[in-house]
Specification:
By secondary structure, this protein is mainly beta. The chain has one domain. Helices cover 13% and strands 36% of the residues. The chain is built from 1 helix and 4 strands. It has a 4-stranded antiparallel sheet. A hairpin with a 5-residue loop joins strand 3 and strand 4. It starts with 7 loop residues before the first strand and ends with a helix.
């Protein structure tokens, strides 16, 4: 999947705060996403994120 800055994605499993919507805030070999409810930031590899999102 192609990601863009500011794009909102949904994950299969919710975050600890019970939210599953994230905003893409950094692109590259690793992708940084921010939880829209609690503002926690997580960085992970693109292939790992591809497995965790709802397509």
């Amino acid at each position: 999947m192609k990601y863009q800055l500011g794009m909102i994605i949904k994950t299969k499993k919710p975050h600890v705060c019970q939210n599953n919507e994230w905003e893409v805030i950094r692109l590259g070999a690793d992708i940084k996403i921010r939880c829209l409810k609690c503002q926690r930031e997580v960085m992970m590899a693109k292939y790992e994120l591809d497995k965790r999102i709802i397509k």
